[in-house]
């Protein structure tokens, strides 16, 4: 990894701000929607799909008692591809700014840490979150607001963080899964 990556990672950890995403989004500046969507599909097919966690994916695909809503802080072109695979009722993601079909390199709407609010805005407050599942500590409010809470944990630190939440179900993932 480059020294720049480690510097950004250190800043992220110290200041609790994701500086990598805004910098990476600058790569999309002056790119067309089609070009970025093509990149997102290649990223999903060549990288993300190989990293699916079968135990959590089966939970997402086999719960038909309620409508699946995907809420991801990833950028909207990538979320669109993930949604194509999961077939949710709807999806929410970090929206990138576009002007006349061209990306500006800026974030229009960040949803990290704001997922319950975004979901409630869309449904005019007329929805309860039946089940929420996440591996991201910034989704604490999302899981807290759900009736059924599922925390995906990769480390003991993750397990310690989520185990403090009342009623949470912890799924431990081994690195090889």
Description of the molecule:
The protein is of the alpha/beta class. It has a 3-stranded mixed β-sheet. α7 links the parallel β4 and β5. α3 packs across α5. About 45% of the residues lie in helices and about 25% in strands. It has one domain: Rossmann fold (3-Layer(aba) Sandwich), CATH 3.40.50.
Structural Rg: 17 Å
CATH class value: Alpha Beta
The tally of strands reads 6
Alpha-beta content class = alpha/beta
Number of helices: 8
Question: How would you briefly describe this protein structure?
Answer:
The chain has 177 residues and is α/β, with parallel strands linked by helices. It has 8 helices and 6 strands; from the N terminus they run ααααβαββαβαβαβ.
SSE blueprint:
Elements lengths: L2 H13 L4 H6 L7 H16 L5 H9 L6 E7 H11 L3 E10 L2 E8 L5 H8 L8 E4 L5 H6 L2 E6 L2 H8 L4 E5 L5
Short key terms for the protein model shown above:
Rossmann fold, 177 residues, 44% helix, three-stranded mixed β-sheet, three-stranded parallel β-sheet, alpha/beta
């Amino acid at each position: 990894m480059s020294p720049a990556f480690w510097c950004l990672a250190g800043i992220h950890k110290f200041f609790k701000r994701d500086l990598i995403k805004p910098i990476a989004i600058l790569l999309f500046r002056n790119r067309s929607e089609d070009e970025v969507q093509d990149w997102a599909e290649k990223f999903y097919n060549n990288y993300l799909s190989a990293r699916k966690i079968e135990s959590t994916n089966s939970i997402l695909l086999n719960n038909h008692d309620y409508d699946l809503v995907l809420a991801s802080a990833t950028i909207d072109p990538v979320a669109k591809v993930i949604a194509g695979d999961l077939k949710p009722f709807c999806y929410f993601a970090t929206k990138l700014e576009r002007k006349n079909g061209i990306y500006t390199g800026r974030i229009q709407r960040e949803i990290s840490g704001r997922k319950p609010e975004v979901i409630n805005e869309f449904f005019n407050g007329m929805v309860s979150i039946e089940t929420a599942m996440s591996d991201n500590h910034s989704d604490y409010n999302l899981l807290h607001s759900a009736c059924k809470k599922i925390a995906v944990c990769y480390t003991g630190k993750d397990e310690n963080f989520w185990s403090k939440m009342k009623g949470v179900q912890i799924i431990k993932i081994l690195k090889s899964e």
